[in-house]
Amino acid sequence: MSSSATALGLTGYHWSLFGAGLAAILAGIGSCIGITIAAKLSAGVLSEEPEKFGGLLVLAALPGTQGIYGFITAIMVVVLFGLLQKTAIPLAVGSRIFIATLPVTINCFVSAIYQGIVSGAGVKAVAKKEDVAGKAIVLPALVETYAVLSLIATIFMLLAVRANI
């Protein structure tokens, strides 16, 4: 396919940017929602027990990692495929890049929200008993596992696309 071919009016370059941008946007939105869930509950606890800030900060921040994974994905697309230098990417390559970004885009959006819910439950546990903070951090980390796996899948898929152009 030539570089000027389009699908839904988008060239390969546009599909590449679309995948990169969507990964950063949706993972970031998921992180914002997840952090809000845990931080809102943390603020309530802190209003009465400010000494619990350390453990609560970690619980509130955990859902933010998915936004970082989306950002990493976007940067990888731009760097691996030279989007700052060239504008001609064949449609077939651009569509593969878009597909390769989907694991992070979808999984990080959803997992950040659910991690926020689990982190919020951890906040409630810490509010009742401060010495469970370490254990309460492990539970949302279980949700994190799948965000990390989606990042690894996206990285390998992007490298496979890069190796075949």
Write the layout of secondary structure elements.
Elements: H1 12-48, H2 53-61, H3 65-80, H4 91-128, H5 133-163
Helix pairs in contact: 1-2, 1-3, 1-4, 2-4, 2-5, 3-4, 3-5, 4-5
Characterization of this structure:
The protein is mainly alpha-helical and 165 residues long. The protein has a single domain, classed as Four Helix Bundle (Hemerythrin (Met), subunit A) (Up-down Bundle), CATH 1.20.120. Helix content is 79%, strand content 0%. Helix 1 packs antiparallel against helix 2, helix 2 runs antiparallel to helix 4 and helix 3 packs parallel to helix 5. The longest helix has 38 residues. It is elongated and about 60 Å long. The mean pLDDT is 94.
How is this structure best summarized?
With 165 residues, the protein is mostly helical.
Keywords, please?
165 residues; mainly alpha; Four Helix Bundle (Hemerythrin (Met), subunit A); elongated
CATH superfamily: lithium bound rotor ring of v- atpase
Helix content: over 70%
Supply the number of helical segments: 5
Which radius of gyration do the C-alpha atoms yield?
19 Å
The CATH topology comes to: Four Helix Bundle (Hemerythrin (Met), subunit A)
The CATH class turns out to be Mainly Alpha
Per DSSP, what share of the residues sits in E-state strands of 2 or more residues?
Answer: under 5%
Mean pLDDT: 94
Q: How many domains, in number, for the residues? A: 1
Q: How do the helices and strands follow one another from N- to C-terminus?
A: HHHHH
CATH architecture name? Up-down Bundle
Main sheet? none
Distance between the termini: 12 Å
Low-confidence stretches: none
Number of strands: 0
Overall geometry: elongated
Structural class: mainly alpha
